[in-house]
Amino acid sequence: MALLIPDFGPMEKLPESKEAWQEIYCELVTPIYGGGVQAAMPDVLMPIRATAIRGQLRFWWRLLAQQKWNLKEKSLREAEFRLWGGIGEEAAASLVFLRVLDVLNVKQISYFQGSLDSSLPSDKKVRSKSKSNDLKPYAYVLFPMDSEEKREKTLLIKEGLTWTLQWRLSEKANETDREQVLETLRWWVNFGGIGARTRRGCGAFVVKDSSNPVFKQPLSIDEVMKAGCKLVLRTSTNHALLAWKEAVQRLRDFRQGVGIGRNHPSSDTTKPAGRSRWSEPDEIRRITRTHSDRHKPEHPAGDLFARGVFGMPIIFHFVGGDEPADTTLQPKRKERMASPLIIRPVWDGKGGFQAAALSLPLDKVLNVSAELLEKNKIR
Residue ranges of region Disordered (predicted)? Predict the structure, then answer.
């Protein structure tokens, strides 16, 4: 059902500027996961927040500053605080003003079948079989909802929502500031998103119109390479959800697909897939000295946890009484590491969408130390 957005009264007064407001008119093309005040829950009253957009813009600006504009440590920090505002004792007003207007067509959808206010089945197997047909193709990236027991934590904001982002610069901003903000915004509209799990394609949007035509121009593979990233694109389709579906399937198959990430099942089993071709399960078996007779460690890679590069934590679940207990791979002395891989549908500039995989720079990721956690004990 459509939800009306209430009138919140006068907007917070922004600093004066002779700059005219620039507008970017956006439309959501994949559902928003989370994004509200409470974790994993959408906010139907304020689904698009200027503060959240500012946070994303800071991320893309830092990427460009490090990889393209060659700013180093202290100078990068100083430049970031000057342009985007400081934090704590180094607080300073931002030179970039943002506001969100005209949020329309806000609708909720449920990951599981049933009315939005109904309770979920208590049995996990029954609940698993009741996933929404519309969202089943994306279950691989929406998996955190599988274990939720409350309906309100399995709701998403449906694609089709529209909003206008207005932005302008302070009078103190110079031409370099303007060029950097324009490029930062361009990266955000190409690869950013709204809410959580945006690196897996949730909350993706497209620019329908803009006071500056540059925001409707897709970033090319060459432009992406100049920022130390790599972009892979598939054939265009007319629908963003179809492009997202292909991106999700490609990632799922790479990590778990039969004949790619896993062996084919043996003839004497009813299981849908065989043994993993990745090294982590066997290395966990070696470290814990626990394994079934059917799954003696045999992978030659040794002490290698390759899938950690795609983000951590990763929970490894083994089936069988003689196998290791659930084991978590996590960055050392930290709880998580964001994935350097972004998948999502991207606008092709011609009316269609392409499944896209963007690899962010890997230099720091490849040097991250990891540890295994089993039954609250570091292995």
Answer: 258-280
Give tens-digit pLDDT for 70-113. Answer: 998 889 999 999 999 987 655 678 999 999 999 999 999 999 99
Q: What is the sign, positive or negative, of the torsion defined by CA atoms of 218, 221, 225, 228?
A: positive
Tens-place pLDDT, residues 235-273: 999 999 999 999 999 999 999 999 999 888 877 666 767
pLDDT tens, 273-303? 788 999 999 999 999 999 988 888 889 888 8
Q: Which of 212, 182, 165, 200 is nearest to 64 (CA)?
A: 182
* 26, two tokens: 């956006």
The whole-angstrom separation of Cα 272 and Cα 265 is 6
For residue 3, the model assigns a pLDDT of 42
Beta bridge partners of residue 33, listed in sequence order? 156, 196
Q: Helices then strands (H, E): number in the chain?
A: 7, 15
* Distance of alpha carbon 372 from alpha carbon 314, whole angstroms: 10
C-alpha angle 268/270/271, rounded to 5°? 110
Nearby residues of 363 by Cβ (< 8 Å), 6 or more positions away: none
The model's pTM? 0.89
Give the list of residues 6+ apart from residue 259 with CB closer than 8 angstroms, or none: none
Closest alpha carbon to 19 in 129, 248, 128, 173: 173
Helix (H) or strand (E) holding 379: none
Q: How many other C-beta atoms lie within 10 A of the C-beta of residue 357?
A: 17
Query: How deeply is 190 buried, as exposed, middle or buried, from its count of CB atoms within 10 A (0-12, 13-18, 19+)?
Result: buried
Q: How far is Cα 243 from Cα 238, in angstroms, rounded to an integer?
A: 8
Give the C-alpha separation, 142 to 30, whole Å. Answer: 12
* 326 φ/ψ angles, rounded to the nearest 5 degrees: -55, 130
The span from the CA of 129 to the CA of 124, in Å, is 9
Q: Compute the distance between CA of residue 133 and CA of residue 120 in angstroms, rounded to an integer.
A: 16
Q: Which residues contact 26 (CB under 8 A, 6 or more apart)?
A: 162, 163, 164, 165, 189, 205, 206, 207, 208
